[in-house]
Amino acid sequence: MTWTEWFIFLLILQIIHGLGTWKLYVKAGRQAWEAFIPVYNAVILMKIISRPWWWVILMFLPIVNLIMIPAAWVETARAFGKDSKLDALICIVTLGFYLYYLNYVEDVKYIKNRTLKPKTSTGEWITSILFAIVAATIVHTYFFQPFVIPSSSLEKSLLVGDFLIVSKIHYGARGPMTTVAAPMVHDTIPKLGIKSYLYDDNYEERNTSWKNKLQLPYFRLPGFENVERNDIVVFNQPADTLLNMNIFTPDRNYYKPIDKKTNLVKRCVGTPGDTLEIKDGYVFINGKQNVLPPRSHLQFSYKLTLKKPISSAGEERMFYNMLDKADIDDGFRINPDGSFYLAAVSDEAANKLRVQPNVASVEREVQEKGISGDVFPRDPYHNDWNTDHFGPLWIPKAGATVQLDKTNIALYKRAIGEYEGNKVVTRGDEIYINDKLATSYTFKQDYYWMMGDNRNNSIDSRYWGFVPYDHIFGKPVFIWMSIDGLMNGGIKNWKFRWDRIFTTVSGSGERTSYFIPFLVVVLGIYGFNKWRKKKKASAS
Asked: Is residue 175 predicted with pLDDT exceeding 50?
């Protein structure tokens, strides 16, 4: 739905509300017309039901309002003496239309100074839980959200099993687009395996519009910094290959609402307006090799050949010790020729291996230049691109214009069509945008190039292209928990990485844990509050 459609929809809701409550407003000592004025009617309703004015704000926040609006229905019925469990149930089941019955049929009387405290401990418990969900949803949606690292694409910087706090305020919180969804749940409800949001029955069709089921247009609150080169960023995968959080299908894309696409975390190596090229696996931006921050380590796959094959348990232990000394912990496999394939090795680790007495060679595995790879944009004019030799490629920038022809339309077709909402068709050597012949296009939003530091083990922009700004989710700022073995089948395999718990994601120098200072502060606050209560009790 567009903003205009939402405006009309909300006006209709105000009329429905006014028709169903104007007599109740009069019985509460207000004027009938006050029930029809948008927003103002909600402010007056809060006075009638003796609830704080800020409930109005919560009633207009997507997702949160799915709890607050039914709460307002129930509280309205209670304000007129209908405070049984059955009345509350009828209010919710009838989507608030029970108020029509109270307005036109039942001779109810307004209770001016009613008690707001629930009658039973169960009611009090339910109220507490609902408001805890509301508070958590607001924090989760507009401020900070937890995230766990599931893969090794940013190995060394972020490890599998790192639990992150992702800030949404750095780049500006993106408002939820999917308005009817379970709070604090992403694509799929855990255990149940069903979608967590209202979706189109034809969601698998390529041209499905996500604006037809109460979808809000994209909007973002102001942030206090822009996405910079080499930032680690959480974003929604543009070409989503997960039908749900459990089913991976790499051979196709699923067309989901932007805010329900799979969350990924990668490093932004290319920003709007940059020209990116990959040579021998290394990224070059505007002709200069990109240099990562101090805590980051590029990793590649290597072929390790030993001078003497492993023939005993003692030699096997020596081999593992050698890998440990080189800080290689991502495993290996044996190649058919007896050499070893190492999946994630930094340049520093490779140099440590080369000086070991039993090592014959350590060779980085690089795809040859000109050899075709299954990479973006998968068209005949860029058939010689692969993961290690890629580009040059210009990254679109909002307001910038690119000249289009048959040799580069594949690079920008998805951005122009899918991400910016245009119809793009090629007919021979001609390009048509919205049925008009086009030789150029001016982009509406910024785009970014996201890659993993573990270059040979990362599904990233090399495979699905640009990441639009409206897909940017947030910035990881803090590791609050880190567990080794999280993905290895059960708690018995877990080991806490104490040196990573309560550490910052970014920064220079050695990683520092703030876990002990945190515990000291928590215990200090606890002790102070206990002392204060004891002093207050003794004084009384």
From this structure: yes
